[in-house]
Amino acid sequence: MRRGWTTAFLMGAMLLLPSPLMAQSAAPQTPTPPGTTGETVVVTARPQATEREVRDQVIGVTGRPKSGMPLMRFRAPVCIGTAGLPVAASEEILRRMMVTVESLGMKMAPDGCTPNILVLFADDPQQQLLALRDRSPQIFGDLSRPAVSRIVKGAGPVYAWNAAMRVSRDGDLVLQQDSPTANWPEMKVGAASRLLSPIRQDIAASVVVIKRQALLNKTLGQIADYAVMRTMAATKPVEGMTSATILTLFDTDAVAPAELTAFDRGLLNGLYGSRPHARGVQQVSEMTRAIREETAGK
């Protein structure tokens, strides 16, 4: 069932592609890891944020956990596809993203895989997405129509979303009850626990579509790191961030960092280092701890 869903998703996404899709053909060839770009960067020290301040920023970026629901993340091997840039640029973006994904302990799918991450570049992505909203809604996965409208009617130049599949602790798909008064999906779990979530939210697919004109003065490393932050976790840029983050890359009022920052690395490491069935509040705590450790240089 999951394979059929991702295949339908990819077929819808193909209508967005401005050029042939490159899917994971760029195997890592000792690329420069994030954090060692070789570029000269002038860094101004900031006071270390308090634990509460970091937690608030994590919640701002990932959203406040609801009713013990876990935050979404990938579980299956990752397959990245990209299109819309020259081959050499696409290969560099793929290599850098793959290094970061593997640093989180995630496996990469073999070559020839069906992409579950798409990083696309187009001249007018908003108009294409508006047309696809009605013509090929499968590209938006299980998102509600209001949620899709918020995405496609956004200010741009980036349009991103994550499609999740809810599964039990044992990996079985969770079935939503038909009753309009039902608040909880039907599921079977081996045991109940107040500390662990009875379900997971596995990312089935993530999409980032970026307007090509917005790439001016951006490095391929920055673009790859931004794409990782938008696809490996359900994150969004927020105004008023006091911590440096690559999520500000397309913010015209911010000076974007050259690569993933301590906040970014800590958020991803905390999310993927948390217990497999941790609740959302526990994941937020783990991300907060990891960010503070990264910031302190531990």
Quaternary structure classification: single chain
For the record, the count of structural domains works out to 1
- The rounded distance between the terminal residues' Cα atoms is 43 Å
Shape: globular
**Element string (H = helix, E = strand):** HEHEHEHHEEHHH
Number of helices: 8
How would a textbook summarize the main sheet? Answer: 5 strands, mixed
Classification by helices and strands? alpha/beta
Low-confidence stretches: 175-187
| Rg from alpha-carbon coordinates | 19 Å
Strand arrangement within the widest β-sheet reads: 1-2-3-5-4
Helix content: 25-40%
- Mean pLDDT metric: 82
The proportion of strand residues reads: 5-15%
**Number of DSSP E strands:** 5
Task: Give the tags.
298 residues, 5-stranded mixed sheet, 8 helices, alpha/beta
Description of the molecule:
- The protein is α/β, with parallel strands linked by helices and 298 residues long.
- The protein has one domain (2-30, 46-175, 193-296).
- 34% of the residues lie in helices and 12% in strands.
- The protein is built from eight helices and five strands.
- The chain has helices spanning 2-14, 51-62, 87-103, 125-135, 145-152, 220-231, 262-273, 280-296, and strands spanning 22-23, 80-83, 117-122, 158-168, 199-211.
- The protein has a five-stranded mixed β-sheet, sandwiched between helices.
- Helix 2 packs across helix 8, helix 3 crosses helix 6 (220-231) and helix 7 crosses helix 8.
- The chain is globular.
